[in-house]
Amino acid sequence: MIQTLVFYLFATVVIASGVMTIASRNPVHSVLWLILAFFNAAGLMLLVGAEFIAMLLVIVYVGAVAVLFLFVVMMLNVDFAELRAGFAHYLPFGVLLSLVLLAEMIFALGAWSMGGVEATAKAAPIDAAMPNIQALGEVLYTRYLYIFEAAGLVLLVAMIGAIVLTHRHRGGTRPQKISDQVRRRPEEAVRIVDQPVGQGVEL
């Protein structure tokens, strides 16, 4: 009974937060509503036993993505009145894209429901006593190890590419020369002087 009440509470707040995320005129308020939706979605994941996904929602989405959105919205000088002015111009394209996504979801749900027992039989059996994180880790680091490493390699290449694209050569600066610093000897950099008491230092 308590789980049912908590489920409806979380679900209601998630739906209301999603609606307010879209309907809010202030982009900062939209991001705050989005953070609230993430927190309540994490609560729903905990109810179904998917604690790993719940932690991802809180740590990754709330702690990184949503906060990044919030800082970007607050720091960038974006003319939101100009963005809203083009809403009517792109409305037909948005409606068409929404219909395409709706059709894909309907086809996906239809294929899943037609699969029936066969679709669930292909899934790997999971011990009910095994925690969700342990089961996910065993599958991820055994069966899908190479795919997981390939995804990490793709992210590494994307990070290096972003650094290379944003790195620009600037004139009028003195760059750091690592080789000259390594070749420099201590006697070239430090001069030990026996300075008498009461006299100034001669440079």
Quick synopsis:
The protein is mainly alpha-helical and 203 residues long. 71% of the residues lie in helices and 0% in strands. The termini are far apart.
Layout of secondary structure:
Blueprint: H1 2-23, H2 27-47, H3 51-75, H4 80-85, H5 91-115, H6 117-121, H7 132-140, H8 145-166, H9 178-183, H10 186-189
Task: Please characterize this protein's 3D structure.
With 203 residues, the protein is an all-alpha fold. Among the domains are: 7-77, NADH-ubiquinone/plastoquinone oxidoreductase chain 6, subunit NuoJ (Four Helix Bundle (Hemerythrin (Met), subunit A), Up-down Bundle); 130-167. The protein is 71% helix and 0% strand. It has ten helices and no strands. It has helices at 2-23, 27-47, 51-75, 80-85, 91-115, 117-121, 132-140, 145-166, 178-183, 186-189. Helix 1 runs antiparallel to helix 2 (27-47) and helix 2 (27-47) packs antiparallel against helix 3 (51-75).
CATH superfamily of the domain at 7-77: NADH-ubiquinone/plastoquinone oxidoreductase chain 6, subunit NuoJ
Q: What is the CATH C level class of the domain at 7-77, in words? A: Mainly Alpha
Compute the separation of the termini in Å. Answer: 84 Å
Fraction of helical residues: over 70%
Number of helices: 10
Strand tally is 0
Strand coverage percent: under 5%
Instruction: Give the overall shape.
Output: elongated
Biggest β-sheet description: none
Low-confidence stretches at least 5 residues in length (pLDDT < 50)?
A: none
